[in-house]
UniProtKB/TrEMBL annotation:
<dbReference type="GO" id="GO:0045303">
    <property type="term" value="F:diaminobutyrate-2-oxoglutarate transaminase activity"/>
</dbReference>
<feature type="region of interest" description="Disordered">
    <location>
        <begin position="384"/>
        <end position="404"/>
    </location>
</feature>
<dbReference type="InterPro" id="IPR004637">
    <property type="entry name" value="Dat"/>
</dbReference>
<dbReference type="InterPro" id="IPR049704">
    <property type="entry name" value="Aminotrans_3_PPA_site"/>
</dbReference>
<keyword id="KW-0663">Pyridoxal phosphate</keyword>
<dbReference type="InterPro" id="IPR015421">
    <property type="entry name" value="PyrdxlP-dep_Trfase_major"/>
</dbReference>
<comment type="similarity">
    <text>Belongs to the class-III pyridoxal-phosphate-dependent aminotransferase family.</text>
</comment>
<dbReference type="InterPro" id="IPR005814">
    <property type="entry name" value="Aminotrans_3"/>
</dbReference>
<feature type="region of interest" description="Disordered">
    <location>
        <begin position="461"/>
        <end position="491"/>
    </location>
</feature>
<protein>
    <recommendedName>
        <fullName>Diaminobutyrate--2-oxoglutarate transaminase</fullName>
        <ecNumber>2.6.1.76</ecNumber>
    </recommendedName>
</protein>
<keyword id="KW-0032">Aminotransferase</keyword>
<dbReference type="GO" id="GO:0030170">
    <property type="term" value="F:pyridoxal phosphate binding"/>
</dbReference>
<dbReference type="InterPro" id="IPR015424">
    <property type="entry name" value="PyrdxlP-dep_Trfase"/>
</dbReference>
<feature type="compositionally biased region" description="Low complexity">
    <location>
        <begin position="461"/>
        <end position="475"/>
    </location>
</feature>
<dbReference type="Pfam" id="PF00202">
    <property type="entry name" value="Aminotran_3"/>
</dbReference>
<dbReference type="InterPro" id="IPR015422">
    <property type="entry name" value="PyrdxlP-dep_Trfase_small"/>
</dbReference>
<keyword id="KW-0808">Transferase</keyword>
Length: 491
């Protein structure tokens, strides 16, 4: 398949410019100031298939945002459309609250078929509201009821949603008791060392906080974590650290909640990201790709936690039959076609090429990711490294200097240059300086090469045009070669 062949021939030519401009103008005038994607991506999608989106202005884009990871099979995949049509043509109810239906039964059967061994055999599932944040809130309600405790342990850089408890676990100041723990990473390690030592220090800190009666943190009702932090900047959790979190929580009877809302359904190269480490969580919160592009969210958990009362957590739209049908088709297609393995293989190749690009572009601080969840952190190559001396290193100091300053303006420029080249990407990370790739699992080799070509061109153009602090201009290529101390890769 070529990149152009992924676009149906029957797609019409460009709509009148007035349509495109008028819709954007009316959106700006009528929609809220809180809108996000629309600000950085001023396009009006009118058709889409697979990786390709066509705007009302006739331009075509390669979509590496994929509905923030929702579109595991890309836009309008035939198996998804067929599943939806089948329900529509059957006369089945489209809204059924939490009543049992054949469509729901098929979805749960397929979902349980994919769960990590050790959980599937004794799992229960709760359908909640249609968004991932509803699943997070339901999980918190569940573990509070099961343990009799109230607090939640979460990690710096996390994103778990926008409602009260989920927002608190994501770092927002609301009236929910959340203990904030260090999440390990290499390039901007909170302990200044990175690697296995940094991850070990993060684990030790967590253990100390939970065990110290004077830490101010009572034993929590649950611990929630992302196996790969997405909005936090595409930070894969080290497998040893994740296994240590499983051990720490198990020894203290603290349910471990894995937030697989963005990482699930093959995205990271395993069907569920926790499977890379062999960890079996007590609770999993799932949304995005499990609905096959339609709103759906569930909590899956160990049966011995199922002690909450009827109605403890509910939601009017938890019985979306179209989403369940689309989700069943998506889960089955990913499983039967081994798309998780495909994501692992293609993701490794894409990371290798991006790491080669990082060796030529001093504005790339780090390349990291897992499977088809990839991020590039952009930095100011002329800035002074952030000091990260390890006072505990003794005779064995950290083998690298500090990270370079974040470059959010440069990242925004790269996003704009990508859009000019017909490539849709998203930004994330602590300083909004991580350019993210979340292509559908169905992306072809040729499409992947086109994505990387356009991204490399965009970085080159943005770096040449970006004015660094102090008026100097970072130069691509050999202009400012980084020492090995200032550039790391994580996989």
């Amino acid at each position: 398949m070529t990149v152009t062949e992924s676009v149906p021939e029957e797609w019409a030519s460009a709509q009148p410019p007035a349509l495109h401009e008028g819709i954007l103008r009316r959106q700006s005038a009528r929609e809220s100031a809180a809108r996000t994607y629309a600000r950085a991506l001023p396009i009006v999608p009118v058709r889409a298939r697979g990786l390709t989106v066509e705007g009302a202005d006739g331009r075509r884009y390669l979509d590496c945002l994929s509905g923030a990871g929702t579109l595991a099979l890309g836009h309008n995949h035939p198996v998804v459309l067929e599943a939806i049509r089948k329900v529509l043509d059957s006369g089945a109810p489209l809204h059924a609250l939490d009543l049992a239906t054949p469509v729901k039964d098929a979805f749960v059967t397929e979902l349980f078929r994919t769960l990590p061994p050790g959980l599937a055999e004794r799992a229960r599932v709760q359908f909640c509201g249609p968004a991932g944040t509803d699943a997070v809130e339901a999980a918190f309600t569940l573990v509070r009821a099961a343990t009799g405790r109230t607090g939640i342990a979460a990690f710096t850089g996390a994103y778990h949603g926008m409602t009260a408890g989920a927002a608190a676990a994501s770092g927002h100041a609301v009236d929910v008791r959340v203990a904030r723990l260090p999440y390990p990473q290499d390039y901007r390690c909170p302990f200044g060392v990175g690697g296995p030592r940094g991850a070990a220090l993060a684990a030790r800190w967590t253990e100390s906080v939970l065990d110290d009666p004077k830490s101010g943190v009572p034993l929590p009702a649950g611990m929630i974590l992302e196996p790969v932090q997405g909005e936090g900047g595409v930070l894969p959790a080290p497998d040893d650290w994740l296994r240590r979190m499983r051990q720490i929580t198990a020894e203290r009877s603290v349910p471990l909640i894995a937030d697989e809302i963005q990482t699930g359904v093959g995205r990271t190269g395993a069907f569920w990201a926790v499977q890379h480490s062999g960890v079996v969580p007590d609770v999993m919160v799932l949304s995005k790709a499990i609905g096959g592009s339609l709103p759906l969210a569930v909590v899956v958990y160990r049966d011995d936690l199922d002690v909450w009362e009827p109605g403890a957590h509910a939601g009017t739209f938890r019985g979306n039959q179209l989403a369940m049908a689309a989700g069943t088709a998506t889960l089955a297609h990913v499983r039967e076609n081994r798309l998780a393995e495909r994501a692992a293989h293609l993701g490794s190749r894409m990371l290798a090429r991006l790491r080669a690009l990082a060796g030529e572009q001093p504005c790339i601080g780090e390349v990291r990711g897992r499977g088809l969840m990839i991020g590039l952190e952009l930095v100011d190559p002329e800035g002074d490294p952030v000091a990260t001396d390890d006072p505990w290193a003794g005779e064995h100091p950290a083998p690298r200097g500090g990270p370079l300053p974040a470059a959010p303006a440069l990242a925004a420029a790269v996003q704009r240059e990508c859009l000019r080249r017909g490539l849709i990407v998203e930004l994330g990370g602590r300083h909004a300086c991580v350019v993210r790739l979340l292509p559908p699992l169905t992306i072809s080799d040729e499409q992947a090469e086109a994505v990387l070509d356009r991204r490399a061109d965009a970085i080159d153009a943005a770096a040449r045009g970006h004015t660094a602090p102090g008026g100097s201009r970072p130069r691509p290529g050999g202009g400012h070669r980084r020492s090995p101390a200032h550039g790391r890769t994580a996989g």
